[in-house]
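Task: encode each sequence below as structure tokens.

Item 1
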Amino acid sequence: FQNLRDHTLADQNCEAYLTGCSVFPSHETSSLPTAKNETDRRLERSEIKRRLTRKLSQRPTVAELQARKILRFHEYVESTHAEDYDRRADKPWTKLTPADKAAIRKELNEFKSTEMAVHEDSRIYTRYHRP
């Protein structure tokens, strides 16, 4: 079907070339917007902005989205009771050795003393952890 359309268009172009008229509309007769000066361009842009803002502010309803097959809900939703599984979070900080804790404190103190941006007048209030 695509080839048939391409051949038809090619035949029209050849015939138009031979007769001297174009199948495609010229720039003057086309429906493309042509702004003559800066004020026309500004008015055109403000109209487009107003139209797009209106379109964005008018949201479709759930029923409309379902009718257009954009939004679908499943009939079956799987759910389990809270007692069936453990919801407690893992606590990795309880598994740290004293050496790990000391290394973390040392790294934090080094960061605070060298890399962290602090105003000179406020530097005396910086809290360092015991080594």
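Item 2
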Amino acid sequence: MREVMLRMKRRSFLKLAAATGAAAAIAPRLASAKIEYPDAPQGHSGVMPDSNLGHKWIPSVCLQCHGGCGIIGKVKDGELIKIEGNPYHHNSHDYVIPKGTEAKPGDIDFEQERGALCPKGASGIYTLYNPRRLLHPVKRAGPRGSRRWKRITWEQAYDEIVNGGNLFGEGHVDGLAAIRSDAPIGPEDSDYMDEAPPSGYGPKKNQYRWERGRNEQGVVTNVLHKNYGTINKGTHWTICEGSMVHYMVYMNGTFAAPDMKNATYAIFAGSNIYDASFPAQTQARYASKWFKRRPGTKFVYLGPRLCKAAGTGHAEWIPIKTGTDPAFGLGMIRYFIENNLYKADMIARPNPDAAAAGGYP
């Protein structure tokens, strides 16, 4: 240490001494300081971006994932050049207005309070201008599985989808108009009648299956699925979060989000809240603002990889082996049962009416 001090220049020593003194003065304040959570900013007079700069801001909603965050697009000369989070949207900014009023342009100072947006949302420009983005219908141009396609007009697509025909040189194919019938599906329609239930496959219109994503296009679903009359549909939820959605919707009657504001113990099983989740920046903000800074809370990440959620100083990482998540969950359930850590009275109530009678919401 003496040799280090001897080699240290006078200027460096003075800088180090000043920094040490400042740290010593601040440390007691930091140790005794109470954590205060600032209220969400109330509506106030602010400034909008200057429209004289040759660009304008267009509000919209991000569809890069299912988060549906508010965005504003910076447009110049008819071209989208930037996407930011809309500070008036609750996913992107903690903005609050008095109940019964509505947000108005100018309530927020864009220079001081910008909305948050995750990298996937910001990359929406690439989605829009991707040179491989399909802007027209395409039709199979070879045998099934050949991966050969050709461009067709919208008029041709409408006609072939509705009226059918010998579309691929492989024989006649019925269109939607022909199969929209209440007559039962028979052997002429299906090669699998021997596998049908006793009541059959239902009317012929059930041969049409509406396949959708997360259903941001709800109006289209009403027209092409419900109004058509088929019972067959496929959704995004059939392959993503199906177990969670079925549990919440069919057992609780609602789709609930994590209550970061009031939780005291949170387990993230394979959910890297600082890299993914949806809405990404919203969940990360809530975890940091309401949960991880509140004394007495416990933040646990369950997964085989040391990710950002597991690597933060406040988190506990449980590095389970890949694929053992169900066993871990069943082990927790067994522990709850063996130690009577569950509400037997609540579990014994089989429906919402019985739960309400017992005082459960």
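Check on item 2: The longest helix spans residues 10-32. The chain has 13 helices and twelve strands.
End of task.
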